[in-house]
Amino acid sequence: MAVLLLGSVTGVFHAAADDVPKDISADVDAGTTTAKSEPTFAAPVKELGEEPEPGEEDRTIDWSLTLGGAINTGNTQSWNLNAGTDYKLVKKAHELTLNSIFNYGRANVDPADPDTAYATVSKQLFFNARYNYFVTKKNAIWASLGERWDPLAGFDTQLLANLGYLRAFIKKKGHYWAGRLGYSYTYENFRSPPADVTGDSHIQGLLAAMDYENKLNEHVELLSTLA
Hints:
Strand order of the largest sheet: 1-4-5-6-7-8-9-10-11-12
Oligomer: single chain
Radius of gyration: 25 Å
């Protein structure tokens, strides 16, 4: 069996305020030199929710695009493509995150039979938007809205809406760990079948989740959510 992997492309963009003073001069008086203003090359990391000092970074934008896929030949004959984007905006006490991914794949379920054709085995689209507002340095209210389109799983539309309280246990540059509690509502619109049997579904409940982010270096970041 031979496997061919298609590459992926990822880009990250950052926007920040200029924190280097534009006026650096010195006054000489009686043999002493006093700097009128000095550039700051290192500053303590500010937590989300803190007011930045004049000239410090007050906005961060991270945006990445991904594209990839795989082709399998031999005893297993299949191929799939996936594409997605992740966007994150942080400005003072506000945090907005947008995520989406699309996946499409086809496979030959019986390669030994020359009459067997390729069939679609995956076709789905996911989108989620979440907003956090930090009322204090480590306490926030949050809301999210998501949609899932997955006809092979029987869904024409699956909508997910959540609202609740967030507590950050670790929140510093490159390292974030938080827990969330809230209300969850899910609406499911089924295809036919099983729509003729079940109809639309409305699900309500309590949501508990943990979020963890660890930026190991400039190019590698660990992201995980347990709900």
